Structure formats: structure tokens, C-alpha cells
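Quick question: what would this complex look like in 3D?
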Amino acid sequence: MNIINLDGAFGKEINNLDLSKVLSKDEIRKVILTFHENGLIRIPGQKLKLKEFERSAEMFGEIKPHFLDHLRFKGHPGILLLSNIMENDQPIGIYEGAAFWHTDVAYEDPPNTATVVYGKKWPTEGCPTHFSSTYAAYDALTDVEKKEFESLKVIHHYGNRSDMDENSQYSAEKLTEEQKKKIQNVYQPLVKTHPVTKRKALYGIAGSSFGIVGMPENEAINLLDELKKHALKPQFRTTVDIKKGEVVAWDAYCTLHKATPQKIATGENDARLLWRASMVGTAPVLEKYQSL
Ligand SMILES: [Fe+2]
């Protein structure tokens, strides 16, 4: 295994690792510690069957089937497809619905701890995913701000507060009527202490955050928008174009991300297909080894 920096402010690339094989506990530990120390990893050069991808994702936590139950992969409820490929006039997975800054599944309690994706098809003109480190954004706050934000609870529910038009390509994925009935508020700390690294991060400041407990709505939205603007400064950012054969994993507790809007695929050259697993809990290997 050899590990190099990704271009940008944070993240690592892990080379010479074959995830189609069963890894040793030492290899898994190295992957997981690299993941938590950096918040974002890319593992290129893979050729994975679905079962092998699921086993790889399970290194990071427990796979939790996604709220968007109509988009789950048949026979593999823990896997969602992200794609611009159409079948019977419908996208085969999430086509739009992630082209805005967000934290994955911050609208559930407990929220996702990690997201793991695998590139099956890659459009030759590229389709970058943008990331920001909310550890770095927290670290750059003043001591007064850190103290002021410490006790704040953010109100989350499904959606994108910056664009609530469900027909917009920048809004969250459309819900079925049944799913809409299940939407409820959850409350997340604005400053989250990571359970593994014990570092503090600004959490859930974009996407599904719609208010702050005990604060007038306008004031809360202004503060969340200011914090989002702060967290998206170029010095905190990394971009990854997830190519065919690459596994990319991000730590949902200390990053924000957004996808690039796509056009419907017209053929193999512009088709994009990712497998995606959402994780809760922490990596099983950390129970057997000293954590960070
Ligand atoms: Fe996402």
C-alpha cells in the first residue's frame, strides 16, 4: 500500500491495494486510520463485484439502506445507484439531487458517518465531486466564535434549504408521497466532536439544515449561510473526479460535498454510474485496535 496526497487541501490516495481480495486486519486498520486522519480517500485501480464492494464498504461502518427506498438496488438494499443513464424514460438511480453542498443524511438521527462509492462508468469529459473540510473550517474560527457555537443545535430535515423547488437540478432528490409523510425534524450539534479523532468540526451547515433551536429563523439562516460561505473557502477544498474502477470514501462528520449537475447520457462516452453505500457507526476494526 502506498499513500499520497490528493490535489487540494485534504484527502489521500491509496495505491497498490486490491479490494477484491480479503484484506488483513493490519491493512484494514491502515485504510481506516488514513480515512479518519484525512476525511477523504480515493482508492484507484479496482475491479469489484457488488459483494466485494459491500465488503469494502463494511470496513467503514454498518451499511444502512437509504431513505430513498425506491432507488435502492434490487436485492442489495444497502446500495443506491447514482447515474445519468435512463431506462424506460426514468433515471436508473439518483440523477440529480446532490448538486448542492450538503452533509449526507444529517436529516436522520443517528446521521451517516461515512459514504463509500465505486465508479462503474465515467463520462470522458469528467464529473467532479467537490469537498470541503469542516475540521479546517472549525479550526479557522475565532475563540469567541468557537465558544458561541459550542452549545447550538441545528434543526435538520430532508431537503436543500438553498433550493426547495423539487424540479430544480440543484434541489434534493424528489420524494414519493409516502416518503414525504416520513419527514421529521432532527437536531444536530453545530460543533460536532468526532467519535474517533476527537477533533471538532462544523457539522451540517449546508443542505438539510433549516434553523437553530431557540434562534429566530432569519437569524439562524443568516448564520448558517455565513458559516457555509466560510467553510467553502478555497483553502479548505479538494475536488475528486471519481473515475471507473475507483473507490472513494468520505467521512460525513468532517466534510461537506456537492456533485456536478449532469446531462442525461446519450451513450457510453457520457454515461456515469456509481454504486453508493451509506454507513452508520464506526469501523469494526477500531474496536480491536487503539483508536486515533
Ligand atoms: Fe451526498
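Answer marked as accepted. DSSP finds six helices and 19 strands in the chain.
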